[in-house]
Design brief:
This protein has 108 residues and is α+β, with helices and mostly antiparallel strands. The chain has one domain. Helices cover 42% and strands 16% of the residues. The chain has four helices and three strands. A three-stranded antiparallel beta sheet has the order 1-3-2. The longest helix has 15 residues. The model has no long low-confidence stretch (mean pLDDT 86).
């Protein structure tokens, strides 16, 4: 898949989508690997961002502020493509995520 950031209207949703597009472009080729991993899950399989990172690694290879926004962006892209749906919210298990709330997703 080709990731590119297109100019969008600057309302709240447009800014969100533009930010995600920029995160995907800046993390290439990681988004393609991550989306392939999600696509390879069996229908009904559940996963979190922690599972995705454990399987594919971090987009930038290290934890740093504003460095790994592509994780959420690729999960959002999979959801918009109807590859997944959110089941609930859970606490993150990765130590560096500090138990923040993340989505529990199911492969469609």
């Amino acid at each position: 898949m080709t990731w590119q950031a297109d100019p969008l209207p600057l309302d709240g949703l447009g800014l969100r989508d533009q930010g995600m597009a920029h995160a995907l472009v800046g993390a290439a080729p990681w988004p393609d690997r991550a989306l392939a991993w999600i696509g390879a899950l069996a229908p009904g399989a559940t996963f979190t961002a922690d599972d995705l990172v454990a399987a594919v690694g971090l987009p930038r290879g290290e934890v740093a502020k504003e460095r790994n926004n592509a994780v959420g962006a690729v999960i959002s892209a999979a959801h918009r493509a109807r590859m997944t749906r959110r089941l609930s919210y859970v606490s993150a298990q990765r130590r560096d995520s500090h138990a923040r709330v993340i989505g529990l997703w199911v492969r469609s």
